[in-house]
């Protein structure tokens, strides 16, 4: 997701409200939100057409708690608004008074979502977003954050990050699977069920929910790129940068530790390694951190030699 300046400020303000809601949440488990999008009602303060979105795919409910419920509700609202362009524009219209946008939202969702979710969404629509689309992306980012906070509090954020990266590599290497998960003619519920079949009993519940949301509401994102983005968000939550490493063969645990320590010294910050094996590079490593690429592979050195000989 890319946000322009106004949207970045709006997202930062909304995230504060989200974290406040999660911090004030009761410790006792709450009943997970329904996976169906909240049924909207007609608001009297606007002429915006009442949305009639198709029910989104069900989400898994293995874990329960305030962060889970809030994340699920925000994802359901994203799926609802995604199919209602006019409503999205009305809520993201920065020329309208914030109070008007708040009344529209409350008229649609009051009683359909929890009070916590409504307060977070009110904070969202009262801010000035660069575009209505970025407002929608912002709500989805907040849903992701809520689930990542849950994993962080449970001490499972490392596992979620690793699972997202590994599933992305699996999808990247399986064209048939990628097509099955991105086919626009396949119902969202069927794609969500496929995700649960593939990783439901093998991955953290947070991982499953994040992947389901990406699959049922891609919003123009390529699946593999979206999975990489999710893994990076998890890494950032841990205050670490990500180094994408391509190796000709598997790295031992000791080799990974030495490489991480070296990169930590180079970049003066903690670095998380995401290692992919590709025999085609013949030997050595290719390391990417942000926009910087360190190509120490055998094929890379051969390419450099060819360029020198050609020059």
Describe this structure in words.
The protein is of the alpha+beta class. It has two domains: 5-237, no CATH class; 241-310, no CATH class. 58% of the residues lie in helices and 7% in strands. It has 13 helices and four strands. A four-stranded mixed beta sheet has the order 2-1-3-4, with helices on both faces. Strand 3 (285-289) and strand 4 (292-295) form a beta hairpin. It is elongated and about 70 Å long. The chain starts with a helix and ends with a helix. The relative contact order is 0.11.
Give a quick rundown of the structure.
The protein is α+β, with helices and mostly antiparallel strands and 311 residues long. It is 58% helix and 7% strand.
């Amino acid at each position: 997701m890319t946000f322009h300046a106004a949207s970045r400020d709006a997202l930062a303000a909304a995230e504060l409200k989200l974290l406040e809601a999660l911090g004030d949440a009761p410790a006792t488990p709450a009943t997970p939100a329904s996976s169906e999008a909240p049924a909207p009602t007609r608001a009297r303060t606007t002429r915006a057409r009442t949305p009639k979105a198709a029910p989104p795919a069900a989400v898994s409910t293995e874990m329960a708690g305030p962060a889970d419920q809030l994340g699920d509700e925000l994802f359901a609202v994203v799926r609802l608004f995604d199919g209602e362009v006019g409503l999205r524009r009305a809520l993201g219209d920065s020329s309208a008074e914030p109070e008007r946008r708040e009344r529209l939202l409350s008229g649609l969702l009051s009683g359909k979502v929890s009070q916590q979710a409504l307060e977070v969404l009110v904070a969202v629509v009262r801010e000035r977003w660069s575009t209505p689309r970025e407002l929608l992306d912002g709500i989805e980012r907040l849903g992701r954050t809520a689930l990542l906070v849950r994993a962080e509090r449970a001490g499972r954020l490392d596992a979620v990050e690793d699972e997202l990266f590994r599933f992305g590599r699996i999808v990247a290497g399986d064209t048939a699977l990628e097509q099955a998960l991105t086919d626009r003619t396949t119902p969202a519920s069927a794609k969500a069920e496929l995700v649960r079949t593939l990783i439901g009993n093998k991955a953290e519940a947070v991982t499953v929910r994040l992947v389901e949301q990406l699959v049922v509401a891609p919003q123009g994102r390529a699946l593999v790129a979206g999975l990489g983005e999710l893994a990076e968000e998890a890494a950032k939550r841990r205050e670490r940068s990500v180094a994408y490493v391509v190796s000709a063969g598997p790295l031992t645990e000791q080799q990974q530790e030495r490489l991480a320590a070296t990169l930590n010294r180079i970049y003066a910050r903690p670095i998380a390694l995401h290692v992919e094996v590709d025999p085609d590079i013949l030997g050595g490593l290719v390391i990417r951190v942000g926009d910087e690429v360190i190509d120490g592979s055998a094929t890379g050195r051969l390419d450099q030699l060819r360029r020198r000989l050609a020059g």
